[in-house]
Amino acid sequence: KDFLTIIQKESNKSDYDRYLKQLVYKKVSSDENIAIFEVNNKYIASWIKSKFTDLIQHCFEIYNGSKPKIEIRLAGEKKTKKEILKEQVENETSESTILNPSYTFDSFVVGPSNQMAYNASLAVANKPGIQYNPLFIYGGTGLGKTHLLQAIGNHALEKGKTVIYVTIEQFMNDFTFSIKNKNMEHFRAKYRNCDVLLIDDVQFLSGKEQTQEEFFHTFNELHNAKKQIVMTSDRLPSQIAGLVDRLRSRFEWGLTADVQIPGLETKIAIIEKKSDLNGIKLSKEIINFIATSLDNSIREIEGVIIRINASASLLNQEINLAMVQGLLKEQIKENKENIKLPDIINIVSSELNIKPSDIKSKKRTAAVANARRVVIYLVRELTHNSMPDIAKVLGMKDHSSISHNIKKANELMEQDENFKLVIQNLKNKIINKE
Ligand code: ADP
Ligand code: MG
């Protein structure tokens, strides 16, 4: 049977007579992804495209058993280079916008620690480009920055906006790739033609001069066109080392909002929400236990809930406090086995901006002594290393100064809110290996 006979049977008479019978089937693309049809009249082509694509696809399946994308062209049409570029970009934009559909505003628990970032994100998602441009969300690892960023994306997509979500690293790779392939035109068309540009983890722009230069132009172009830009970072723009001034100041043009470590109440609400989403019911006692044992990263809390769920459903274990305590112990043990002392030194070094060699030296300036104390505290907390091990690596003669440092750090954890925050953020970074 030929294609037209099939479509005649599957459609009503007037549609067929007026439009569909003008379809001429040309070919399937070489990779079999697209079936190409031609029509002689521009208006009919666009009418068919908007009304009958699904029907045509259905008939094509009857016709030859495959289900490629349907493309309707004007007969003899040669696409201009610009159109081809635009199409390429449109296709890619929808592909590269791989947003996690579960990262929505609905699934985000709001509390004092993230209220402002949440409100600003919602405002921006509702009216992109109008207020707070750019929006800059910053805060420690695992506290919901990516979640909020993608919630903006999902919301804007629903409202029919063009959204690009990338990490700054993807942006950078894309950029280098385009230079290599002499395809900057395409790169620029992609990043400069969206309604909402979402860039995750911009702290990695640090020291990347060429990418900064390109991002500067992308930023200006979008900002001038009143398109929304949202960025996340683990620190304030002013604290991103090696960021050129003109970018830093632009990052501060709009609104800067932080996400902080949630308080107990918010943590409890998050655990309730996440266990709901995982389809498990936890008692008050268990929820409290988890909330008080895990003191910072929400990602870690989520990990525990997934484990509980797995043990319950795969091993048929009953969910009770003992089981959850066991799982948590396991998780903490695993963390400890995976974390190495040099990693801790490196992360503390880069976060506090003190050279590893200084941390291991005998220097006694306040900043170095503080970094050393932080390392000691974290090594004690996160690894199985003994005091003599630590003393050896840090070039300390005896371990009495180690225990002195630990004592001091414990005091600071009680008294110094700032010290506590630094420790918690570092802990997140180390546990999440970021
Ligand atoms: P970040 O990007 O700040 O490192 P993420 O956005 O990746 O953190 O969050 C880590 C995990 O914690 C995600 O699975 C996210 O859904 C969850 N999460 C973080 N904050 C919240 C919150 N307030 N409500 C619900 N889930 C949250
Ligand atoms: Mg993130």
Automatic annotation (TrEMBL):
The free-text domain note is: Domain I is involved in oligomerization and binding regulators, domain II is flexibile and of varying length in different bacteria, domain III forms the AAA+ region, while domain IV binds dsDNA.
Q: Where in the cell is it found?
A: Cytoplasm
NCBIfam families reported for this sequence: DnaA
In terms of CDD domains, this protein maps to: AAA (cd00009), Bac_DnaA_C (cd06571)
Region Domain IV, binds dsDNA: start and end of each range?
313-434
Species assigned in the record: Aliarcobacter cibarius
Q: Name one Pfam family in it.
A: Bac_DnaA
Q: What is the top-level taxon of the source organism?
A: Bacteria
Please tell me where ATP binds in this chain. 142, 144-146
For this chain, the family text in UniProt reads: Belongs to the DnaA family.
Please identify the protein, giving its name as recorded. Chromosomal replication initiator protein DnaA
Q: What does this protein do?
A: Plays an essential role in the initiation and regulation of chromosomal replication. ATP-DnaA binds to the origin of replication (oriC) to initiate formation of the DNA replication initiation complex once per cell cycle. Binds the DnaA box (a 9 base pair repeat at the origin) and separates the double-stranded (ds)DNA. Forms a right-handed helical filament on oriC DNA; dsDNA binds to the exterior of the filament while single-stranded (ss)DNA is stabiized in the filament's interior.
The segment(s) forming the AAA+ ATPase domain are 131-257
Q: Which GO terms describe its molecular function?
A: ATP binding; DNA replication origin binding; lipid binding
Q: How does it assemble?
A: Oligomerizes as a right-handed, spiral filament on DNA at oriC.
Question: Record's Gene Ontology CC terms?
Answer: cytoplasm; plasma membrane
Keyword Cytoplasm: yes or no?
yes
GO annotation, biological process: DNA replication initiation; regulation of DNA replication
Gene, per the UniProt record = dnaA
Q: Keywords, A to Z?
A: ATP-binding, Cytoplasm, DNA replication, DNA-binding, Lipid-binding, Nucleotide-binding
| Location of the region described as Domain I, interacts with DnaA modulators in the Swiss-Prot/TrEMBL record | 1-92
Where is it mostly found?
cytoplasm
Q: Domain named Chromosomal replication initiator DnaA C-terminal: which ranges?
A: 340-409
Alphabetical list of InterPro entries matching this protein: AAA+_ATPase, Chromosome_initiator_DnaA, Chromosome_initiator_DnaA-like, DnaA_C, DnaA_dom, DnaA_N_dom, DnaA_N_sf, P-loop_NTPase
